[in-house]
Every structure is written in structure tokens, then in C-alpha cells.
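Why run this: before we spend reagent on co-expression, it is cheaper to look at a predicted model of the complex and decide which construct boundaries make sense. The entries below are exactly what would go into the expression plan.
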Amino acid sequence: MRGFSVFLKKELREVRKTWRLWVLPGIALFLGITSPVLAKLTPMLVEQAGQSQPGVVIEFPDPTYVDAYTQFGSQLNQLMIIAVIIATAGLISSEIRRGTAILVLTKPLSRVAFFLAKVVSQTLVLLGATVVGTLAAFSLTAILFGQAPLLDLLLGAGFWFAFAWLTLAIMALLSVVFNSQGGAAGVGIALLFGVILVVSTWSAIEDYSPAALTMASMNAFRGEEYQAVIPLLSTILVGGLALAAGAWALQRKEI
Amino acid sequence: MSPSSAGTPPAIETRGLTKQFDEVRALDGVDMSVPRGSVYGFLGPNGAGKTTALRILAGLARPTSGSAFILGRDVVAATNEVRSLLGFLPDVPGFYPWMTAPEFLRFSGELFGLGGAELEDRVGALLGLSGLEGVNNKIGGYSRGMKQRLGIAQALINAPELLMLDEPTSALDPIGRKEVLEMIGALGGRTTVFFSTHILSDVERVCDHVAILNKGRIVTQASIAELKESRGEDRVVLEVEGPSGDGLSGDGRAGDGAQVDGAPRLAGLLKGSSWLLNIEQTGHGRLLLAVADLPAAQRAIPQAVAELELGLRRMEIEEASLENVFVELVGESAV
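The model came back. C-alpha cells follow.
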């Protein structure tokens, strides 16, 4: 792990000084703001649209904070996960492509340290994005609905963060395997939909796989019961394996 | 340790180093020894395998077979140990565009475990050496020459025992090339410099040793002086005018106005001389002689010209050059 702290410090400065600071937190902030607003406005808009059709009456119950949280959770599980995939698809390959990896890896910086420092810095960005989005969703929900239970929101966002971290770990592996950022992103998205399809049709693993965290996250946002312990453990296990495989692949890779 | 570790091991030593890419053999049993303290040119035409060899030596790629040692350490087994002794500049150095030159040098030094006043002193000295003192712009706005000079500076941050540079002057304009060569030349005697290039004049200008690589094989390696002495030959370029009289006009032209060529007669007279290695006619009245004994040739040629009553328009001596050696070993097309 020689050079880990020096390279991590560089990574964090890079996050601060480049676009990387703004992309994921920016998207999370956008989702955190728009989700409660959409939850508040959508029923009114649909009802008004219905009134323009003679004889059609559409009535919705008054929206609540649950609708705002559910909207936020859905957006995290769809848009935000795809954003994470795209933003991290070149985590390693972009350094190799730009030639910066050659300059640092010919110094006493081990490849494992290089790989893990990039994962840790991106994990911190993801954590920051989750916090920013969650705070925005909490604030707007409280303002628009007068009620915003913090614990439900934190649990839902926490479970989502664990699933997003797993996505990041898998993307880190793919960004070592694939030299092209687009290639890694394409495989990552295909993998995401493939996993969702398999888990939804294979009930034996539905409750145990990391993908079950998305369901646990939605249930937590709604204030319903959730099963998260085994999915969290399997997420840590699969994420750890992905990181180990990524570090091993980078050790073997010719640059 | 390397096989030659009984004494001080050479800066670089390779034994049967081979690299195969699918159908292409980029390196084919390369045996090379780079003496410590030398400025060593690794010369070869484009595609000869120079970058592949450097990538293996820098630990970025693995050999298919054979072995490579840097300062006596196996480059495959002792990667961190090797890297701490090494400074490396790739052919196209990639920098973080958001950093400034001092920031990048500090970051590079910290990766070697340097810090405090020692690091600041080195950063200041290297900024001065690379002519980047006072330049506080982001690296993203640097010219190619500035990046190349910063590349050499970052490779020196750990005061390496061996500095490896891959094509450091390629794609630079003449001024940038001059600046980089001056930097390399200034390092001579302070550290071992091993640099690859396809530019012959760069090697002649700053190197004291050279290895010539062609199609993945070392075709020769020696000090430049030894190489010129053993393989090089002095050349004499002659230009003569045909004789006057015998039906020719006074200006040496035939009656019909055509220039009489005296070169074949002179070549015929000189053939068989002990000092002559080769003679060829390169144009009307022009001869190119390869000579083994230049003083003897300088005495004999004017005598022969006078004996044939020819006019000597030009007699130019070209001393043995690396280019001659390179052409002889690699072929005209590679220059």
C-alpha cells in the first residue's frame, strides 16, 4: 500500500479542483430538490389535466411526505445509479489513457494503493452526493409537506448508498478490464439491468442479494418494514470481491 | 541479483529479453549492458522495439522471456525497490492539467517519501534546471516543450541513480529540442542517463555510449568512439574536371560542348590503393571514396589528379559518423 495516502490526497485535491466535485453531488442535489416538488405538484397537474376532458374526474389523495420520499428513492435507484455508472466508468482507464498512470506507477506507488485510493476518493464523493441530495430532499419535504421524518430518510438513503457503493466497486473493476470508458459504462448498465432481471425472476436469491437493498431502501423511505442485514452483508462481500479482482487485474495489466 | 553482480552491477543489464505481442516479436533476445555513469543512447528506427524495452525496464510490462536488471535488481521481482532508484519519462508524458509545475514536483517527491525542506529545495532546483521557475500557470496550458522539460524534472525529483527517457526530443521544435538536449547533457557524469531516440544527431550530441536496436534485436552496442573506430570509415568526396587539349576546348569541354568526365579515369588509377576501401561514381565528375587511411589518401589523391591532368574542383573529407554506422547496420531506409 506504499504511496496510498499521498495519492489519496492528490485524488481529493483533484475532486476539489475539477468537475468531479460537481457532477454526482449536483445530480443528487437536483433530485433532492425536484422529488418533493414533483410529488407535491404531480397530483394537481394530473387533476387539472383531467378537468379539461368533459366527463373525466381524476381525484388523488393529498400528497404526503411519503410520496416525496418515494419519488426521491425511485430517482436515486434509476437516474442516480446510471449517473454513478457513467461517472466512474473511466476511474482507472482514463488515467491510463491520459498517460498519468505511467508517470505515477513508475514511482514507488503500488498499483493496489493507486486502485484503492481512487475507489476511496470516489466513495467519498458518492457519500457527499448522498448527503447533499438527502439534505435537500429533507428540507424541501419539510417545507412543502410540513412533515419529514429524518430516520426513514436516512435509512433509505443509507441502504441506497450501500448499493451505489457496490456499483462503484464493480465499475472500478470494469474500468481496469476495459480500456474504453464507454465500453465499461455500457457493460455496467447492461449488468445492472441483467442483475435486476435475474433477481426479480429468481425468488430464491431475491431477499439475499445486494439488489434487495434497493427494495429495502424503498421500504425504508416509505416507513415500511425492510430486510437489510443479509443484503448489506452480501453487498460488502460482493463489493470486496470486485475490489480484490480489480486490484489483481490492475497488477497484471500492462500499461 | 544479476549474473554480473560480482562487481558493481551495470545500470541496466538484459539477458535474452524477449517480448511477443500475438504475431509480432517486438523484442527478440536482447542482451544489453549499460555502464553506470554513462549517457547511453538507445537508437533505432521507429518500430524497432525501443519503447517496449523501456516499458519492461520501468515495470509497466512483463517480458515474455529473458530477464532485465536495473542496478542489479530484477525489474519483475523487485518492482518497488527498482522504482525508488529510477527516474522515468515516457514518450508522451501525461500530467494532471489542473496542477502547476511546483505542485506536480511536490506530489512526485512525496511519492518517493520526500518532504519538508529537502523536498522544497529539490523542487526549487529542478524548476530552475527545467527553466520553469516562476511559471505558476496550470500544466494544462503548457507547450509540448515545457511539458517535456517538466517531465525530465519530475524524473529527477528522487535524484535517481538511473534516468530513463523515452524519445525525449521527438515532436519538439528545434528550440525545445535544444533545451531538452542541454538538460540531458548537463546530467552527464551525475547520473546514468538512458534515452531512446530515432534521431541520430541527438545521440551524437550528448551520448557517450550507444546501442542500436533494429527489428527487436541489438545490432551493436559500444562507446560512440569505439563504434566509429571499429565500424566507421572516413569518406572523401571528390569533384574533378576533365583534361584540356586532345580535341577538347580550353574549358575542359568536348568539342560539341559536352563536359568530359575524368572521374572514371581517376577511379581506375586509384583502384587497388592500399588505403582505399571503396570507390563509387556519384555523378558527372564526382567520386565518393571510403578510405581506411585518411592521411595516405590525402597525399595520394592530389598526385593522381595531377598525373591525369585533371582539375580538382572539390576534395572534402567526411569523418566517420554515427549515421554511416547506423546506415551500415540498419539500412538506408531507416534514416
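The domain at 12-229 of chain B is CATH 3.40.50.300 (Rossmann fold). Chain B has eleven helices and 14 strands. Bring this page to Monday's planning discussion.
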